């Protein structure tokens, strides 16, 4: 309850007894419920990520061909057809289009290549991780002003969140459209005697290939990468060699397209039609929008090496070769790629092209897994199953739920659209929107993280937005010709993610506001006013500090609890990974006789709380280590009355004042063994402060340590029970209709079909105990 404070005639610098009592009690409560900053400071920070050897870098560069560049590499299959869907009128138009393709590849994939989180579960201890990159902007700098402006208003954070979610939704749409257009374009080279059946056969073959592609995803990125990388390597060598052959055979003058003058002449000659054709040119850089999502799978340097020294030169040769052929064969605009292949290598090229198209889909499929996983970790996407597929590389994952959704979407798009150009229009719309969002976020990263000079940021922003907004203005004209598909997919995805994130934030706020007072816990006494049964109870909570509401709800309905209680918080941090050595933070709650602890298990967005039979053992081992260190830090302590963590910091003066000023509060603490006060990391009885020097030394450190460790071992042998909250969220009575629909129907449906927390955390079903509660928003 809020308390009204009015001005009084008390002289400045003096306080009434009532004010001192309120202040002391507030201070006590705050000190009893401290976050685990001190424990984080004590962790060893000697662990650093090891650099990659040149051999490993080359190996990963090779693998990145199959995962990252398959999509970009298959663009020559359909770019010229989508650029000239109605035919080529002038050979010079081919040169102009080629010039646009060259500079698009140069500007986007080659050159281009803040505290705004809304769930308030961040603590300073998170920044002590060795993998936490924290930079401080100079006061008064443009970066500092931008950061302050973003953090100043809640609506600005929400606006940024919507932008990020929009980009994520478009990326999901990209994951549906990329396999559809890549496979359909590759199978378009099938030669059938009956032209009327050609389209149906192509679609049927494409669907069969898509089913096979998604069915093999469970083997993992590492195995798929080794399988796909040789195919893409051969593909790039084929298109590079074919391009060089066509340039030499048909027209070497196409190399004049490297002059940007032909871009100006192209737009001058074609006018509005030339501008709209940018929607087709855009397809030459498809796949670059997935680069940033696929960075989670491979080191950035490996991706850059593969593109600069292999992918980029081969693509230039491929497009120049097709242009040389089209200059002399304008009638083959619909099948320029296959028509330009020499007859002697046609079928080998068709087989490799089909394989490359399958691989081309892998980049966006893998990118979709990665971005959905990060969205789940930030509470912006329903809980889905995520499987680690590699023991060596942390970021390589497989998401079965998303995999089958993507497959069904691909089949629906492939079967529904009869013209490849319509899928191309849809694909282009998704790609350009992802690029625009990426550029906007890159600007913020350059300012807030990299601290680039504002002039450099301005140049980057101008060039990127100039190119990408030009493409965007072109695809707008094709919304009614297939461009509406990614917008519908994005709208549905955005609704799902927004509702889920809103409910997640409200649930966390509910947990924060309804957490149990530590004063109340201490007032229950060592037995907590309950029957303490043998065993260890792991109480899962989203709170990194404080006692969750489900605990009080549990002991109110069932007046018994385990001999040892550990509050476990699995927490995802804004870092790419948390080293195993720094995974757990442990702290004692209350005096030693309470046998209550808190453990925070921390993960980065590339980590995963994977199925690990040793999770319990690791947690309990960390708890044992904590007890040993704690005991060594207490040379004169008594386990029944005194508890500390890693350091001792007594404040006797404030203790005496607190006892003196709380005589009127005896009723509140009548059930306590003694008055209990706390510093940052100490819980001490008032009497023990005066008598510490007279404590008997009979109970040595070794005996005390052995007793508690033996007790912990005995409890573990009795059994470990996982206690989790099962919260049902409902709209409050009187809420407006959209809110009721969002919470009572959309969120309720998502919560029902998504994976339960116990599944995500891999809690054994036979040791799971759910505590139900209803929460109204």
Automatic annotation (TrEMBL):
Entry keyword Membrane: yes
Q: Does the keyword Transport apply?
A: yes
The topology of this chain with respect to the membrane is:
Multi-pass membrane protein
Subcellular localization, per the record? Cell membrane; Membrane
> InterPro entries recorded for this chain?
K+_transporter, K_trans_C, K_trans_N
| GO MF annotations in UniProt | potassium ion transmembrane transporter activity
Q: What function is annotated for this protein?
A: Potassium transporter.
This chain belongs to which protein, by name?
Answer: Potassium transporter
Q: Which organism is it from?
A: Arabidopsis thaliana
């Amino acid at each position: 309850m809020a308390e009204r404070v009015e001005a009084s005639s008390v002289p400045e610098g003096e306080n009434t007894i009532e004010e001192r009592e309120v202040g002391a009690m507030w201070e006590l409560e705050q000190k009893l419920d401290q976050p685990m900053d001190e424990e984080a400071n004590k962790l060893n920070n000697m662990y650093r990520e090891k650099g990659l050897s040149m051999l490993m870098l080359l190996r990963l560069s090779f693998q990145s061909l199959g995962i990252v560049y398959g999509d970009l590499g298959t663009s020559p299959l359909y770019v010229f057809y989508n650029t000239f869907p109605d035919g080529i009128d002038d050979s010079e138009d081919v040169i102009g289009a080629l010039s646009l393709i060259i500079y698009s590849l140069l500007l986007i994939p080659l050159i281009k290549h803040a505290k705004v989180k809304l769930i308030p579960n961040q603590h300073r201890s998170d920044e002590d991780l060795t993998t936490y990159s924290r930079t401080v902007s100079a006061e008064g700098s443009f970066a500092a002003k931008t950061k302050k402006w973003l953090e100043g208003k809640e609506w600005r954070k929400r606006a940024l969140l919507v932008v990020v979610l929009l980009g994520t939704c478009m990326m999901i749409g990209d994951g549906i459209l990329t396999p559809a257009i890549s496979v359909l374009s590759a199978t378009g080279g099938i030669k059938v005697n009956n032209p009327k059946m050609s389209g149906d056969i192509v679609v049927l073959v494409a669907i069969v290939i898509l089913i096979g592609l998604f069915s093999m995803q469970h083997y993992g990125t590492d195995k798929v990468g080794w399988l796909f990388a040789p195919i893409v390597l051969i593909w790039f060598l084929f298109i590079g060699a074919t391009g060089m052959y066509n340039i030499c055979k048909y027209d070497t003058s196409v190399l004049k397209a490297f002059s940007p003058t032909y871009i100006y002449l192209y737009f001058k000659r074609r006018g509005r039609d030339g501008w709209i054709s940018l929607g087709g040119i855009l397809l030459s850089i498809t796949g670059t929008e997935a680069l940033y999502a696929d960075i989670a799978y491979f080191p950035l340097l490996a991706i850059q090496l593969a593109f600069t020294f292999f992918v980029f030169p081969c693509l230039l040769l491929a497009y120049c070769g097709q242009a040389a052929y089209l200059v002399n064969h304008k009638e083959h605009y619909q099948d320029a790629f296959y028509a330009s292949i020499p007859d002697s290598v046609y079928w080998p090229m068709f087989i490799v092209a089909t394989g490359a198209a399958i691989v081309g889909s892998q980049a966006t499929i893998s990118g979709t897994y990665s971005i959905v996983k990060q969205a789940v970790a930030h509470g912006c996407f329903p809980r889905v199953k995520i499987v680690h597929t590699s023991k060596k590389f942390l970021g390589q994952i497989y998401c079965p739920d998303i995999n089958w959704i993507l497959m069904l979407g691909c089949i629906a798009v492939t079967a529904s659209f009869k013209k490849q150009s319509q899928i191309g229009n849809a694909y282009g719309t998704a790609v350009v929107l992802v690029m625009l969002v990426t550029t906007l976020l890159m600007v913020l990263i350059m300012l807030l993280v990299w601290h680039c000079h504002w002039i450099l940021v301005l140049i980057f922003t101008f060039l990127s937005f100039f190119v990408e907004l030009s493409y965007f203005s072109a695809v707008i004209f094709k919304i009614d010709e297939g461009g509406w598909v990614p917008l519908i997919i994005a709208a549905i995805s955005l609704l799902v993610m927004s509702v889920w994130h809103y409910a997640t934030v409200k649930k966390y706020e509910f947990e924060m506001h309804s957490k149990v007072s530590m004063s109340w816990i201490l007032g229950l006494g060592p037995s907590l006013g309950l029957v303490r049964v043998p065993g260890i109870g792991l109480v899962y909570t989203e709170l990194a500090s404080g006692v969750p509401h489900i605990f009080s709800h549990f002991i109110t309905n069932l007046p018994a609890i385990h001999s040892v209680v550990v509050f476990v918080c699995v927490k995802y941090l804004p870092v790419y990974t948390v080293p195993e050595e720094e995974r757990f933070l442990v702290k004692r709650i209350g005096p030693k006789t309470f046998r209550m602890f808190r453990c925070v298990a921390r993960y980065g967005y590339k980590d995963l709380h994977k199925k690990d039979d040793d999770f319990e053992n690791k947690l309990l081992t960390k708890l044992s280590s904590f007890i040993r260190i704690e005991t060594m830090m207490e040379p004169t302590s008594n386990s029944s009355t005194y508890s500390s963590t890693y350091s001792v910091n007594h404040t006797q003066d404030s203790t005496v004042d607190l006892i003196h000023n709380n005589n009127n509060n005896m009723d509140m603490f009548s059930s306590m063994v003694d008055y209990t006060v706390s510093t940052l990391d100490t819980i001490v009885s008032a009497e023990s402060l005066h008598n510490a020097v007279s404590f008997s030394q009979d109970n040595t450190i070794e005996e005390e340590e052995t007793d508690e460790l033996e007790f912990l071992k005995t409890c573990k042998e009795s059994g470990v029970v996982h206690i989790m909250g099962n919260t049902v969220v409902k709209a409050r009575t009187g809420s407006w209709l959209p809110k009721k629909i969002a919470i009572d129907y959309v969120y309720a449906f998502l919560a029902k079909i998504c994976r339960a927390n116990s599944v995500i955390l891999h809690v054994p079903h036979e040791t799971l105990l759910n505590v139900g509660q209803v929460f109204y928003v």
